[in-house]
Amino acid sequence: MVSHSGGLDIINELAGKDITRIFHEIHLTSNLNKQLLNRKYWIGKIDRNASKEQCGYFLMQNLLCRTVPEYNLPMRVPFDQVCTLKEQFKQYIMSANFPCLNGKIAFKRNAFGFGVYDILATEHSTKLLWHNLIEFINRQSSLWEHHHMFTTYVACFRTPKDVSEDIFETLLWKQLRLLHKEDVENGMIWAENYSDDPLDPNFGFSVGGRAFFIVGLHPNSSRKAGQFLTPCLVFNSHDQFTNLRRLNILSEIRQVVRNADLRENGSINPNVISNDNNSVAFEYSGKLINPDWTPDFKSRHKKTN
Hints:
Strand order of the largest sheet: 6-7-10-9-8
Largest sheet: 5 strands, mixed
Number of strands: 10
Strand content: 15-25%
Oligomer: single chain
Protein name: Cytochrome b5 heme-binding domain-containing protein
Number of domains: 2
InterPro entries: Cyt_B5-like_heme/steroid-bd, Cyt_B5-like_heme/steroid_sf, Uncharacterised_YqcI/YcgG
Structural class: alpha+beta
Order of helices and strands: EHEEHEEHHEHEHEEEHH
Number of helices: 8
Pfam families: Cyt-b5, YqcI_YcgG
């Protein structure tokens, strides 16, 4: 076993090499390993002036491991609270009121990620959420390889609970801006083949180089299907929908979801866009959106001519 300080020397030494784990043992695909290492990327924003005891690394069986797994990350929500909320969410998503077939399948097959965070749209929660999403992206890739077509990540926030639809929408987009900021600061690129303009029909919110469709849930949603005990953001990969379209079953699944929504909630979600000329960003918050609405989001990525 060889000890290292965790400085740029070891990062430069490993840059471009195909390793299976980086720092606190987050599993990454080979291509993503190379991309991250080539960018001299590290997770956790290590303080270069910290002592070796604070940011030590060691090599074990050719894997770069970290001596303090949770260094510089926010404190996690107590495990018992996570388990309770996770079980409550599972009951909610499996209920008749919730129309999304994709989500039900993901939970039935244990092909989902779940995290509980303190306060929605704060830097404190964002750092941990981004970290968890990167972990989930790699697990998601593995699930796809094993033919689990439906996967999802659920981020629940303990507060604020009693907010209007307008305030929730504001907080949702603030949270996405903070996530995007964290993504850019960690050297990530926008998801390939997706637009970073929220008004573009080809928009997909990008984290870790993967495009997601966001579903917002909260206690005061005007639609029964969108009501949960605490604010939640559900991250569904756009690649899954692309794959369903390629298999010619996307339209059929959409119709099943809409029929269930109509049966259990009295109407079809008015924000579900039936054509390809509108951005999916209009659907994120779950509230009825005016046609002239503009999302409060601007990409930090520099445009190239």
